[in-house]
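Sync notes, pocket subgroup
Present: LS, DG
LS reminded everyone that the earlier model was apo-only. Rerun requested with heme C included. Inputs:
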Amino acid sequence: MQVRVLVLALSLTVSLSAGCTQQSTSTNNGAKPTPSAAATPDAFAAARGIYAKDCQECHGTDGAGGRVKIDDGTRLSVPSLREGHALRHPNSEFVKQITEGGDGMPAFKDKLNQAQIDELINFIRHEFQGGVTPPPEKDMKMK
Ligand code: HEC
């Protein structure tokens, strides 16, 4: 069983790379192949969904924030999740901000459970901060 799958995968690889060689003169040359969903399972699928629905309108698709106008017309200056304070704040500060909100951000304690919040923070650390090790918890100053 396993051997057959391997053979299949090998012949697939061979035919794929043959296809690439033939295409090398086309204008598509250099385009990144789209990875198949099975090859790269998205560990952050759930968090990504929540972020898109609940966070993105303010924090932006890439977490860069900036000046945004929200539904009720309020203009907000949203700090980047990619740099600055966000890199210096330990996970506990993120938890607090997401749970309780404040300074223009709504509270999510009635909407998200602890596991979802932890996953969102993981997602932020990996996607927006390049997988940094979060700062130690002893620094409890917010600003
Ligand atoms: C209505 C706009 C808005 C929405 C929606 C929103 N935020 Fe925020 N968020 C803000 C603002 C504004 C701040 C800065 C608050 C401050 O100055 O203390 C902030 C701060 C944060 C911080 C703290 C960053 C730091 O530097 O420590 C985190 C983490 C965060 N938001 C995550 C989220 C997540 C996750 C969601 C979705 C579940 C979300 N936010 C939804 C506006 C928003």
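DG: Residues 10-26 have pLDDT under 50 and may be disordered.
LS: The pocket of heme C is lined by residues 54-55, 57-59, 70, 76, 78-79, 81, 85-86, 89, 93-94, 97-98, 102-106, 108, 120 (CB under 6 Å).
Action: DG to write up.
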